[in-house]
Amino acid sequence: MLGEKLKTQRMSLGLTQQEVADHLHVSRQTISNWEVGRNFPDIPMIISISDYYGISLDELLKGDEGLMDKMKKDAELVKRTKRRKVFDGVFVGLLVLTIAFTFVVTRIPELADQKLWPMLIVGIVFLFSMVRFFLVIPKEDATSGMQAPLIIPKSFGVGWAINPYHPLGKVLLIGIFVALEVMIYLG
């Protein structure tokens, strides 16, 4: 629906795809893809198109379910990204405080030989990693959620990870955590 509206409005203004593309600073192929419904422009671009074509956003967007679905997914992605950034900031802050506290405490002779401090740091990193995953990745996510396999690609496609939503993934991750803590304690 949006694609048809874009094409109709462009043609009624007597504009070529290239002229529109030049004005919006995108490729002609991008305009073509929008007009045939292969993909959709993002919100700032929709506003620019609305201004350029001289039609209201309401008129441009009403009735296009595909676009509404894309906008919902984009909004969810923005929320997840914000949550991840806040959580990562808190995590880094807490980790720095824990390391600083450990550094100070290990200077006290009675506490210096205890293996509790490295175990505490590993525990905090593990706990925050798991909580972050469950807060940032929705259960319904096709690539990392409950329906995803045991081994999933990491963020940005760099490396692999164990899926904590997978029942065996939870067991493996807890086993790895316990093994690390035991190695620190015995080492």
Task: Give an overview of the whole structure.
- The chain is mainly alpha-helical and 187 residues long.
- The chain is 70% helix and 3% strand.
- The chain contains 9 helices and 2 strands; from the N terminus they run H-H-H-H-H-H-H-H-E-E-H.
- It has a two-stranded antiparallel ribbon with strand order 1-2.
- Strand 1 (151-153) and strand 2 (160-162) form a beta hairpin.
- The mean pLDDT is 82.
Q: Low-confidence spans: pLDDT under 50, at least 5 residues? A: none
Number of helices: 9
- The helix content is 55-70%
How does the helix and strand content classify structurally?
mainly alpha
Got a strand count?
2
Strand percent estimate: under 5%
Shape: elongated
Order of helices and strands: HHHHHHHHEEH
What is the distance, rounded to the nearest whole angstrom, between the alpha carbons of the first and last residues? 65 Å
Give the integer mean of the pLDDT values.
82
- Note the main sheet: 2 strands, antiparallel
Rg from Cα: 25 Å
Oligomer: single chain
Strand order of the largest sheet: 1-2
